[in-house]
Design goal:
Structural class: alpha+beta
CATH class of the largest domain: Alpha Beta
Number of domains: 2
Distance between the termini: 24 Å
Largest sheet: 9 strands, mixed
Number of strands: 23
Shape: globular
Length: 451
RNA sequence: CGGAGCGUGGCGCAGCCUGGUAGCGCACCUGGUUUGGGACCAGGGGGUCGGAGGUUCGAAUCCUCUCGCUCCGACCA
């Protein structure tokens, strides 16, 4: 992408209403624009990140055996009356009427609708297990939206729903999602720790939150240090091996790990002092096992091997990609701007032309741009005629992993400056050496984080 | 929903108390000189002060109502 042809409206100063760093940087980097309290437009750079996060989540859901659908944002109130939640949900649910004065609502979640889909088609235990998910906008009319897209009223969410014949197989489904979340956050280049969670209004008896550790996180977390050292299963994981999956779940949940809400001082004191880790985190995922809470009132049954009808056991599994984007920034930034993880940045490389109009420099830039693009890199080429300082500031602000700086000074020696955003390391390399370095980096990233 | 605060060119702010029809920095446009870490000079465009009503000869400034936004608290992917 040539910057001159892109739409990247950056701000030198953050608007006053932005309090936390991810919100400030998302506004400054031209990623989002607030349209109303807790409601945002996603501008090209922000949308690009949102899509990348979404895609990683999708790949890992698919790998774990979940099947994607897409349900509407607007739902009929009737479904919610069946589960009893139409009255329970309160003012967080945005209620609307259509022209015929039928009660509708903007979905805050989709348990009812997915249960309706399930009961419409599935009759036999032979069709189980089943896990359906979608990635769709949700609306919860929060009393007080804040922190930009971190707690918006409208937010993007991946929500998966598992259906099983009985409790044990339903727990196995829960474990699969648990493990897929470990892999998802690992691929997103962040440390997300699963914590025992309160089941909340959705109900059920088994629930975990996944928190990305960041100093600016809202929740205080208490966990055993060993949790951080546990290996995340690689892409060759076999989700059909229930025992192995349960083993991973047990490994990750055997140590103490709770947020302040669930914190238990007595249990905490049993953890050896040197192992206690006290940090802050941002909740980016939440999984629930809730059994027949919805299937029973809504009549979602299958015939079992015994020839009798059984209410299906269900769980739901959510990740908020829009919040994840903000959380990545909370977890990775410095005074100059965003530092995206290597694994997931809006572009891989920023190519900076320091002297637009100088034929040699222009030619070198375009050559390198084409080479990189052909090699599969996503490159943002700053071909604007701005000054060096402004270009460097922009590059640091949007935080692409690599900056390739090409100007007449270095080009005289056949060299360009290669800067790594995260470490600040810079070196002068030939074009060829640059390509080799980036190719090696790309290979390494693919091996560590690729699908 | 309880408490606090803010709305003045695109962004950040001053002016308001002590009414006299709007100013600064950045950004933007034109020309020139510049060009490796947010250049300089000159010229220029853009707001009628969130909205409505009122007081007054006169309102960004005072009063009333209203809308929007933010922060603290209770709640949440």
């Amino acid at each position: 992408m040539y910057l001159s042809k892109y739409f990247l409206p950056v701000l030198k100063e953050a608007p006053r209403e932005a309090e936390i760093v991810s919100h400030q940087l998302m506004l400054r980097a031209g990623m989002i624009k607030q349209q109303s309290a807790g409601i945002y437009s996603w501008l090209p750079l922000g949308l690009k990140m949102l899509r990348k996060v979404e895609q990683v989540i999708r790949e890992e859901q698919n790998r774990a055996g979940a099947v994607e659908v897409l349900m509407p944002t607007i739902q009929s109130a009737d479904l919610w009356r069946e589960s009893g939640r139409y009255d329970d949900y309160g003012k967080e649910m945005l209620r609307i009427q259509d022209r015929h004065e039928r009660d509708m609502l903007f979905g805050p979640t989709n348990e009812e609708m997915i249960t309706d889909i399930f009961r419409s088609y599935v009759r036999s235990y032979k069709d189980l297990p089943l896990n359906l998910y979608h990635i769709q906008w949700k609306f919860r009319d929060e009393v007080r939206p804040r922190f930009g897209v971190m707690r918006g009223r409208e937010f993007f969410m991946k929500d998966a729903y598992s259906f099983d014949l009985d409790e044990p197989s339903s727990r196995a489904a829960y474990y699969r999602m648990f493990v897929s979340y470990l892999r998802t956050f690992d691929r997103l280049g962040v440390t997300a720790v699963p914590m025992r969670a309160d089941t909340g209004p959705i109900g059920g008896d088994l629930s975990h939150e996944f928190l990305i550790l960041a100093d600016t996180g809202e929740s205080e977390v208490f966990c055993h240090g060993d949790t951080m050292k546990l290996p995340v299963p690689d892409r060759n994981i076999d989700y059909s091996d229930d025992a192995a999956i349960e083993g991973i779940f047990k490994d990750w949940t055997s140590n103490y790990a709770r947020t302040d809400e669930m914190h238990d001082e007595n249990l905490w004191n049993e953890v050896a002092e040197g192992d206690r880790m006290n940090a802050r985190g941002i909740e980016v995922g939440h999984i629930f096992h809730f059994g027949t809470k919805y299937s029973e009132p809504m009549g979602a049954k299958v015939t079992g091997p015994d020839g009798k009808d059984h209410d299906v056991y269900m769980g739901s599994y959510g990740i908020g990609p829009s919040r994840v984007v903000a959380a990545l920034i909370e977890a990775g930034h410095d005074e100059n701007g965003i530092i995206w993880p290597d694994s997931i940045a809006p572009f891989d490389v920023g190519l900076i032309n320091l002297r637009v109009g100088d034929e040699a420099v222009d030619t070198a830039c375009v050559d390198l741009y084409n080479q990189l693009t052909n090699a599969g890199f996503d490159v943002l080429y700053d071909d604007t005629d701005g000054r060096a300082g402004g270009k460097f500031a922009l590059a640091d602000l949007i935080g692409l992993p690599w900056q390739l700086i090409i100007g007449p000074r270095g080009l005289k020696n056949g060299e360009i400056e290669v800067k790594h955003r995260a470490t600040g390391e810079r070196e002068n390399l030939t074009m060829e050496a640059t390509m080799n370095k980036l190719t090696a980096w790309q290979k390494d990233v693919n091996e560590r984080f690729g699908g």
